[in-house]
Design goal:
alpha+beta, six-stranded mixed β-sheet, 12 strands
Length: 264
């Protein structure tokens, strides 16, 4: 578990490689959901020929939406991770989207909910709206700006009063390869590794479930994690490479961290 530094910023030290970092849905995930929806349609047409799923108001689709609503409620009550809830919501939406006489006529790209008077705004629908807005922003960042450091985030090794040294990361802003925006508003200070000849200073986007009110209502905190690691696991960004010599630790001047290229 990363160590809290200040609001929106956490620190971590990894001795032997970093764990995989969860990201946004990928085309492979979309293909899996499409396969699930098509299999669902085939199964229902085989075992229930009278299944009505041609229009969104048909009983078959209404039943799916009820199940999706109940599943979302149970996941929220047990306090699951936001990634798990979003995954469940995507599966439910994929099944509901299968409500078409032709499964191949379903949506294939980025989609947003269709609203109308009397529609039930359940958790899955609201999360779909949130995810649509977030993915539009990620897409803009990836295609228009690229990934890397936008500003700041310079790294230096400086001596401490006790005769040792520490790593200082200056405040700044970055965009990772997934299009997530990473903010480090007040900088960070890290302890140098006790062993090894090299390490990377990394930063990555991170989110976690937290209590937003004294009553314990859940919210998702969007934050960043700054750390030291022997290697860099995407979509984390390497801000600097540290090298150890007889004189101590220093920033490798030959390492060039990725930077946002911006529009052509």
């Amino acid at each position: 578990m990363p160590e809290y530094l200040y609001p929106g910023v956490y620190l971590e030290e990894t001795a032997a490689g970093m764990n995989a970092i969860d990201g946004v849905p990928t085309p492979a995930g979309d293909a899996a959901l499409k396969s699930i929806s098509e299999e669902f349609v085939r199964t229902m047409r085989t075992h229930a020929p009278g299944w009505t799923d041609v229009a969104g108001s048909d009983p078959g689709i209404s039943i799916l939406e009820v199940f999706a609503f109940l599943a979302e409620g149970l996941l929220y009550r047990e306090g699951g991770k936001p990634e798990r809830r979003r995954a469940a919501a995507r599966v439910a939406r994929a099944l509901a989207a299968a409500g078409s006489a032709d499964p191949d006529a379903g949506c294939r790209g980025l989609t947003r909910p269709v609203y109308f008077s009397g529609r039930l705004l359940d958790a899955a629908t609201l999360e779909q709206e949130q995810e649509y807005q977030r993915e539009k922003r990620r897409l803009h960042n990836r295609e228009v700006l690229g990934s890397g450091i936008v500003s700041g985030l310079a790294v230096r090794v400086e001596p401490t009063g006790s005769g040792g040294s520490r790593v200082v990361v200056e405040p700044g802003y970055a965009i990772d390869a997934l299009g997530e925006e990473i903010s480090l508003p007040r900088g960070a200070v890290l302890k140098l590794p006790a062993s090894g000849d090299g390490a990377y200073v990394t930063i990555r986007f991170w989110e976690r479930v937290c209590a937003s009110t004294p009553a314990g209502a859940s919210a998702v905190e969007e934050a960043c994690v700054v750390g030291l690691a022997p290697s860099v696991a995407a979509p984390a960004l390497a801000l600097a490479r540290l090298l150890r010599s007889e004189a101590g630790w220093s920033v490798d001047p030959a390492f060039a961290p990725p930077r946002v290229a911006g529009p052509a």
